[in-house]
Amino acid sequence: MYKIVSIPGDGIGPEVVAGALAVLDAVAKKHGFEVEIEEHLFGGASYDVHGSMLTDETLEACKNCDAVLLGAVGGYKWENLPHDKKPEAALLKLRKELGLFANLRPAKVYDALVSSSTLKSEVVQGTDFMVFRELTGGIYFGQPRGYDEARGWNTMVYERHEVERIARLAFEYAQKRDNAKVTSIDKANVLEVSQFWRNIVHEVHQDFPEIELVDMYVDNAAMQVVRNPKQFEVIVTGNIFGDILSDISGMITGSLGMLPSASVGSEHALYEPIHGSAPDIAGQNKANPIATIASVAMMFENSFNRPEVAADIYAAIEGALAAGMRTGDIAAPGQAISSTTEMTEAIVARI
Amino acid sequence: MYKIVSIPGDGIGPEVVAGALAVLDAVAKKHGFEVEIEEHLFGGASYDVHGSMLTDETLEACKNCDAVLLGAVGGYKWENLPHDKKPEAALLKLRKELGLFANLRPAKVYDALVSSSTLKSEVVQGTDFMVFRELTGGIYFGQPRGYDEARGWNTMVYERHEVERIARLAFEYAQKRDNAKVTSIDKANVLEVSQFWRNIVHEVHQDFPEIELVDMYVDNAAMQVVRNPKQFEVIVTGNIFGDILSDISGMITGSLGMLPSASVGSEHALYEPIHGSAPDIAGQNKANPIATIASVAMMFENSFNRPEVAADIYAAIEGALAAGMRTGDIAAPGQAISSTTEMTEAIVARI
Ligand SMILES: CC(C)[C@H](C(=O)O)[C@@H](O)C(=O)O
Ligand SMILES: CC(C)[C@H](C(=O)O)[C@@H](O)C(=O)O
């Protein structure tokens, strides 16, 4: 029995989460376990009711469950709120409060969709790497910070334990992937905080002598992802570099609407699609539910240690794609377009 | 009469600078002006003689000339020196001492080379934008900075005048380019220093009401360069974001070995190819001199205000390419390969 907090959120969030819950229901029946779903408000949906994007009640619920499933937050409607009331602030608070120090984002090219990348097919086909982004430290949270009339300032800082735990997680994951190569990305030729990051990653690496570790500067890494993405297997990097690199990595796959993510800590975990709330198509049954459905698969891999359930979900997704099912975002010109619910049904039918 | 300090530097630096000086000589003859070239050591070449990558003598020379032409610095040989003796430290010191607060990097796709991009031809063909990267501020120079056993830290800070002058430069350039659109890139949804950056850019924008200004978050911008590079005309951004974005922008053109750069301040200017010293092919007459030759063209545009000379150089480069001249880095499989000197001669012949 798994207790899951579901946060549909804003925009297309409710539609894609509904799709993911249908799939969750299907795998539960097939594999014979129970799921308890508790729904909570977050983001604009919460603000409109409670005047706060993240209430204590939602936060407590997220702390008292086995995993959180999030749709998307934000939208035009809440863009002009003061800084500390915006969805971004709530998201950062949620990450920090739950201790979600690692953000895992796969960059995987689906064979059926290889032509939708802006990169040449021969460059991207077969790309399949995982980005480990540090999520509760670095310049996102460093003090002092602020701005006045004369200047603005932020602090990029990493403590030993912050680097150790994310490095260890990345190496452990690499171990499970047949000792995949780990690329640690920093700017150690200019930044002391990066030199520190690099030193600690190498210390942790001593416990994983069978794994190859490569250091790469962030400017070069950004180029290499575009030049030859297949060279990467596991990437580990800090918060802001990871923000940038994981987005490029997703983009080159040509399947942004397909990519899931996991944000994990030592006690809690949250799963969500990497795409946003897409207010322009919200409520129209047009959104692609696959990224959220794949996020459920990541939940079974990471939080519940049931890779066989995850495998079933991935196979159902690939089956639906192979059968030609396409939402608008991934359809080639002239291809028939399925709705959110049709895509969901096609995947559920294959579980 | 122009006084130019030439710094061949390390690796392929001397070969590509020789090519650029030959072109400089040719345009001087054609347009009837004189150039005085003073050669100086910098980087590893300087370290091997003086035990310092940047001597006071070289620095003084750079301060007392009309423009500096730099080849490339660094190489395996000097990689294990202590941090403060490395080529990177010398480069940062040179930028700071000369007050080179703006780094201009064009991302231009040459029609003749469009197929060498890893992006699809229809995505990149026609791409032609300019990146203005702030070069003497931000996290590269902010205090406090350092690391010890327990943590590492750097400070990202921008002062009003630092943002003002680079924003103004970018808008003025955009004005000359038929009021091109300016995209300012930051991370204002998370960083106060970015919110400050954004505020100041908008203040400066009030003096350029005819120019469209777009704000974009750095993670999205990195994706957009890969998704649809043609949407950009002028980009302006801070030091570290510019480091990353200008490298991606160069890479997607498929012509890294072709791209020049200008680093300019209110009193001094330095021109150099964006590629590195490529020690593996140094001294073999294989390097592509075009990026350095195009850097001379930028010198005439920016420092000497002689666009007609620059136009001659660009036309000669395109002429040589159209005639099928290719160094190894830009040759298609099976295409005949020219040496550095052959490519140089082909360009000189077209001046
Ligand atoms: C919305 C923003 C605060 C957030 C981030 O920068 O972390 C987003 O870009 C992400 O990657 O999840
Ligand atoms: C070598 C390094 C210090 C430098 C930088 O980061 O500025 C380089 O990447 C560049 O872009 O010129």
UniProtKB/TrEMBL annotation, chains A, B:
Its EC number is 1.1.1.85. NAD(+) binds at residues 75-88, 276-288. Substrate binds at R95, R105, R133, D219. Keywords: Amino-acid biosynthesis, Branched-chain amino acid biosynthesis, Cytoplasm, Leucine biosynthesis, Magnesium, Manganese, Metal-binding, NAD, Oxidoreductase. Mg(2+) binds at D219, D243, D247. It catalyses: (2R,3S)-3-isopropylmalate + NAD(+) = 4-methyl-2-oxopentanoate + CO2 + NADH. Homodimer. This is 3-isopropylmalate dehydrogenase. The gene is leuB.
